[in-house]
Design a protein that fits this description.
This protein has one helix and eight strands. It is mainly β. It has one domain: Lipoxygenase-1, CATH 2.60.60. The protein has a four-stranded antiparallel β-sheet with strand order 4-1-6-7.
């Protein structure tokens, strides 16, 4: 029988222009039999004026999503650019990293940096437990 846990998913970054991005985190939880048991989501919006490079709020820089007790989940994280980078020269806009961390009942079970393209954003998919 599969074990169940309360999962906490965290996404953090120190990227200077992080306020340019909107973030959507969605998770589909499964029970010990593999059936869908719940759905969790979080939406965090960066700058709303389309041209601002104002510093991101602390809450937008550290996002956290918690699941109800479940045996497994599929997690989708969409990082969507809301404005253009500060430079229009592609070579001056390298990809940057966001750190994704997953804890099960308070114990870290996944920690990995993921790369985000400044122009195209990112789609991150994590199946947990990993197969």
């Amino acid at each position: 029988m599969a074990e169940t846990a309360l999962y906490t998913i965290s996404l953090t970054t120190d990227f200077e222009e992080w306020s340019r991005y909107n973030v959507f985190m969605m998770g589909s939880c499964r029970d010990v039999d593999g059936a869908s048991s719940d759905f969790v989501h979080l939406i965090s919006k960066g700058s709303t004026d389309g041209n601002s490079f104002a510093p991101s709020t602390a809450a937008h820089r550290h996002l956290q999503l918690a699941t109800p007790e479940c045996a497994a989940f599929d997690l989708y994280i969409y990082v969507v650019a809301n404005t253009l980078p500060s430079s229009r020269i592609i070579g001056q806009c390298p990809p940057f990293e966001v750190q994704v961390r997953i804890c099960a009942n308070g114990n870290e079970v996944y920690a990995k940096p993921h790369t985000v393209n400044q122009w195209g954003g990112a789609t991150i998919y994590i199946e947990f437990p990993r197969k």
